[in-house]
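=== RUN LOG ===
request id: a7f3
mode: sequence -> structure
chains: 1
length: 614
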Amino acid sequence: MSLLSGAVGRNTRETAFYTTLIYAVLTLGGITMIYPFLVMISGSFKSEVDLRDWDIVPKYFYSDRVLFRKVVESRFNESVALYNSCARQDEYAFTRVEPPATVDAPLVADWISFLKSGSLPATWSLLGNSFSVNNRMYPRHARGFRAEMVRQSGGRIEEFHRKYGSLISSWLGVNFFAPVSPADRAFKITGSPLQTEAIRYQARAPAEDLVVVSLDGRFTTDFLQLKYGKKIEDYNKAHGSHFPDWSAVRLTATAPPGGMARTDWLEFVRNELNLQFIRVSPAAHAAYAVFLEKRFEGRIALLNHAYGGGWRSFAAVPYPADAVTVGSPLVDWELFVREVSPAALTIDGPEFRWRAWLQKKYSGRAGVDAVALPQKEAAWVGMRAHRGATRWEFATRNYRHVVEYLALHGRGLWNTLVFCALSIAAVLIVNPVAAYAMSRYSLPSAYKVLLFLLATIAFPPMVTAIPNFLLLKELGLLNTFAALILPGMVNGYAIFLLKGFFDSLPRELYEAAQLDGAGEWTMFWGLTMHLSKPILAVITLDAFNAAYGAFVYAFIVCQDEKMWTLGVWLYQLQQYAHQSVTFAALLVASIPTFLVFVFAQRLILRGIVVPVEK
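=== RESULT ===
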C-alpha cells in the first residue's frame, strides 16, 4: 500500500518524514554524481600548485594569494630551487609561498627600469613562463616560441628539420631550452641554431618576464646551506659570525681576507660558479700563457688547431671573450681558474651592477650597497597590475594546449571525423536493411537468425579483437579505414532493436502504400525509415560513441600514426601531461559526444512522447 495514498495519509507526520527522507537520499545521490564532475571541471583550470584543492571554483579566481602562488610557479618555470635561489627564499613547495609583507613600489619601478636599461647580458637571466617540468604544461612563452618556429618554417615541419637540425615528430616537440640556472657551472651555450633562436626570442621578451640569477642566492641557498645546513646558527658557529639570517650573507666581489669565509668563497668560485661571472686580473696573463704552454706541450700549432686561431706564441693568446659557449677554450679556461692565484679572481654579477645602478641614480645614498634583487616584489606588483589577463592566462592555458595538441598532431581530427561518418553511414544502411527484411517478410528462420545475432552480445569486444586483427591482416586491410569500419558494420543488438521497432509499425500503412503503387524501396525509405527516426537516433548515437571513443581496437588495427584517431592521441597525451591537462582533454573530447546526444535526444524523446500524446 502506498505511503501517499489518500489525502489523510499525505498529511501525517510519518508520511512527511519518509517523503523528506526520500528526497534527501535522492538529493545526496545527485550530489555524489555531480560533485566529482564539477571537481574535474575545476581541476582543468589548475596546475600543480592548486590541483589538490578539491573545490568547485578554483581559488585563484577570487584570491590574490593563490593567484600569486600560480604566478610564481609559472614565472620560475615550476622550479622551487630556482625560486629560492633567485628570490632568496626558503620554501619547499610553491603551495607555501606567501605574498611579500611589504612592497617598496619605487624600488620595484627602479628594478624594471634597470632591466630595460640593458645593463645585464642575456645569459645572466632566464625567461620566465617558458618551460615546464617534464613538458607537462605549456606556459605562455613556450607557446609563443613554438609559434615563432612554426612561422619561420612556413608551417612545414620538414623545413624546421632542415633549418634547425631537430628531428621532432610534431610541432609540440619544439621546446624552450631547459632552465638550468645561469649561475650553475653546468650552464652552457651549445651554439645550436635552435638555442640561438631561443636566446633571440628571450631578448625580445618583456623585461618584466626575465628571471635574473642571484649570485647571493646561489652562494647561500645552493652552496652554503648544503655545506652547513639550513640553520644560520650553524653557519655562525663555524665562522664566528653573527648574521641574523641568511639574507644578510652576501657573496663579495673579491675573496675575504682569511678564515672559513675565504675557504668557502674560493671553493664556490673555482668549482661551482659559472665562468661568465668570474673575472681574472690582466696581471695573471703571464701565468695563463705558462698554463697553456704546459697543457699543449709547447706546441702553439696544436693550440691554434684546437682554438681555431692563428697566434704565434702562447703569450699572444688572450683570455676567452666568451666564457659560456662550449668548446676547447672554455675547458682550458675552467682548469686555469681553478689554479690561478686567489688575488687575481674577482666576481661580477647582477647584484653588483644593480647596486651600482642605484648608487649612480641616487648619488651614493646609504644602504644601497645592501639592496637585494626585488624579484618577488616585482612579481607581486606585476600580478596586481594585470589581474584579469593573468587569471585568463591560467584559466585557458590547459585548454589551449589540448586544442593545439589535437590540431598539430598528425591527422587525428580528420581520421576521427571520417571514421565516425563512415561508421554511422554503414550502421544506418546495413542494419536497417537486415531488420526490415526480417520484419517485413515471414522468413522461416527469422527467429533463429535473431537468436544468433543476440548471441554475439554475450562476447565482449576484447574477445574478438585478436581474431579481427588476424583476419584483417590476412586481407591486407591494416592501417586503413576499412579495418576500422568493417568489423562493426553489422551489429546484432541494433538489428534486434530495429526489428522490434519495425514490427510495431501498423501493417495497414504498408497495405495502403501498396494500393497507392509504392514499391519496396519507397516503403522502406519513405515509410519505414521516416517513421523510425527515434530508434535510428538511438542507433546513430551508439555508433558515434563506439567510433569516437575507440582506442584499444583503433590502436590495434591502425598502428601507423597517420591513421591514429583522437582516442589514441588523447591516450598518448595522458602519458606525459599534467593531470589538469588531462582533465581539460577529457572535457574537450566530450563536447562532440554531448552535441550529438543533444541532437539525437530530440528525435528519441519525440518517438516516446508523441505516440503517448496521440
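=== NOTES ===
The first strand starts at residue 125 and ends at 127.
The CA atoms of residues 75 and 313 lie 48 Å apart.
=== END ===
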